[in-house]
Amino acid sequence: GQNIDQPTEMTATEGAIVQINCTYQTSGFNGLFWYQQHAGEAPTFLSYNVLDGLEEKGRFSSFLSRSKGYSYLLLKELQMKDSASYLCAVINSNYQLIWGAGTKLIIKP
Amino acid sequence: DAMVIQNPRYQVTQFGKPVTLSCSQTLNHNVMYWYQQKSSQAPKLLFHYYDKDFNNEADTPDNFQSRRPNTSFCFLDIRSPGLGDAAMYLCATSRGGDRNQPQHFGDGTRLSIL
User: Fold this and answer.
1) How far apart are CA B26 and CA B5, in angstroms?
2) Mean of per-residue pLDDT scores for chain B
3) Cβ-proximal residues to B62 (8 Å cutoff; 6+ apart), any chain
4) Strand, coil or helix: A2
5) CA trace torsion A2, A101, B28, A40 (10° rounding)
6) Which tens digits make up the pLDDT trace of A80-91?
7) Residue B70 at interface with chain A, using a CB cutoff of 8 Å
8) Of A33, A42, A93, B49, which has the fewest Cβ atoms less than 10 A away?
9) What is the pLDDT of residues A5-36, one digit of tens each?
């Protein structure tokens, strides 16, 4: 089968740093996306990784290790508006997008 | 601004009464997707269009149909909604050709069944 594993929920403090992990087992790999989804809203695109390493975009960075089937999303200088679910999604060899269930991130003052 | 627009944001229908959800896009993307998402779950792909080519997921119930009359519009028809069909329905688009393009989502339609 194909699956994406992410923690269900995480809590962090405003101003701190948090790392959300994602591990995947899919039939082939053609890239990994991270999306942010606020409650009751649609997912919005954050990042795309297809090569190993770290991609940085402002306060958000995403890391990929293809050999380990592993990615993480790093959020720095957390703000209250970062409270949302973060979904990891992998494109497999058939170009199907396999979604994780998302990690609900709760930011406390 | 180019975008994906879903109407309505909230839809209430009765058990067994057909309902249609609509999606339009100004991105000129040739791929359009319909997802069903229930609370705290991953989005579940129902079907997608690559241009006019319709692709149904194997486990999408026959109760769900789709139409794409032109590049800009796509509709989701639920012929006889059941209580289990209450969910958020998300429309997304992506640029074809390069299949690693990110998908751009509309705001979704939350469907309630009475």
Assistant:
1) 9
2) 92
3) none
4) coil
5) 160
6) 999 999 999 999
7) no
8) A93
9) 999 999 999 999 999 999 999 999 999 999 99
